[in-house]
Amino acid sequence: xxxxxxxxxxxxxxxxxxxxxxxxxxxxxxxxxxxxxxxxxxxxxxxxxxxxxxxxxxxxxxxxxxxxxxxxxxxxxxxxxxxxxxxxxxxxxxxxxxxxxxxxxxxxxxxxxxxxxxxxxxxxxxxxxxxxxxxxxxxxxxxxxxxxxxxxxxxxxxxxxxxxxxxxxxxxxxxxxxxxxxxxxxxxxxxxxxxxxxxxxxxxxxxxxxxxxxxxxxxxxxxxxxxxxxxxxxxxxxxxxxxxxxxxxxxxxxxxxxxxxxxxxxxxxxxxxxxxxxxxxxxxxxxxxxxxxxxxxxxxxxxxxxxxxxxxxxxxxxxxxxxxxxxxxxxxxxxxxxxxxxxxxxxxxxxxxxxxxxxxxxxxxxxxxxxxxxxxxxxxxxxxxxxxxxxxxx
Length: 394
Ligand SMILES: *Cc1c(COP(=O)(O)O)cnc(C)c1O
Known about the structure:
By secondary structure, the chain is of the alpha/beta class. It has helices at residues 9-16, 33-54, 61-74, 85-95, 112-120, 138-147, 166-176, 228-238, 259-269, 273-290, 319-328, 359-367, 379-390; strands at 78-82, 103-106, 124-127, 151-155, 179-183, 191-192, 195-196, 203-207, 221-225, 242-244, 247-248, 305-306, 312-315, 368-371. Helices cover 40% and strands 13% of the residues.
């Protein structure tokens, strides 16, 4: 299942499971929006009503208040709400001065939006290979930067809710003088040695796509930064390049976070993130202790990483067989991602560079499977997943 298809999962799963032993209501899904609505529907409806009765729907008090709360939660100076995570990355690159033809070093495995943001602005993606956990290999990143002085921008991805080594990212930034937008779409709340992801580069970009750890009831995203001048440029770019009413100084976007999504996020969802992250950590812990199967490699982050478990990626030989075995046990697993970014059909007609190859990424993608992990999973469901994993004989 691709990330962008996730909201259609219930329909898709209902088709896939027609006539089988499990129904849509007894399956264990990668996300459970019905359970979330049951838990929070009343509060969300009240937040909706507050915006409706205010009569102010675009760039008002709700967006402003949410930006302040998000910046405080994240521990960065400023937040700017935008229409999506994709836009947050592109606007982040724009405020740092990236333009057509510039080279941008990025992660080889991610949601396609990461590379799409780079391509959409006419820049050239340069991939380093991944490490054993699927994240960009920072030794390779350093080597790529050392060989090619023309690379001045970088978009590293804190994939799966793991933080990359922020000390090393900071050193790369300083040593090679690069400007960095950290893709934090999967890493809200994740830390490295106490520092939040997004604090190593000049700009952090995040997404409120419904499946993310902080998901809205629709699309949304945000940039975070310390620098006020960068914040001001992002505010101009998201709103048609307007510096004052009817004065357009740059070619901008229509990429504003809705008042409605901002209200849902600030009043109801953001206050839950810490508790939800705790629950994700508990589930990850249970998986790590409970799954004992020599055919599976479980995720491991070394060093000072404090992950938020956006996903629980495991690796196996025979991933299709495992996915169908899990399905037979009423469990829907997923792939993040089936292909390296460079191997998507859209990239065949698009220039990019991968100077050190993508061998590790391709092997990683061929073996990666995501087990369900979301805050509404019950202990009994977690035990079912563990039992099904332990029963798999490859
Ligand atoms: C979801 C995601 C994005 C894109 O966010 P949208 O809000 O869907 O545009 C970018 N990067 C990563 C790593 C993501 O997971």
